[in-house]
Amino acid sequence: MSDSPSRLELLQFTRRVVEQQARASLRQLDRWIADEERRQAEERRPPPPEWLIERGLDRISLVAVHTGDCWDPGKHLMPATREQARDAIRQQVPACSKCRPDTRLGLLE
Hints:
Helices cover 47% and strands 14% of the residues. It has 109 residues and is an alpha+beta fold.
């Protein structure tokens, strides 16, 4: 009796290898699909506002003006135009000391 595998055993082994490779390829393809879906979702997301005005806890009083990319903007925010941000600072709403919107707006005294 021969120690070499039979033709049937070789075919069964080949099938297992092909099945394993197919599963690995599908997992890779699923990762690519998920990455592309995330990328497209990010493209659909509207750009962040250029300026933010922070409201107080009462949601009425204005607490600070921030740039849109401020790293510490507070919680109660509303997007603002450049002119709204300038007007708020001119009306004594404090400029954030971290992102310095007054500098970017050219309003330093």
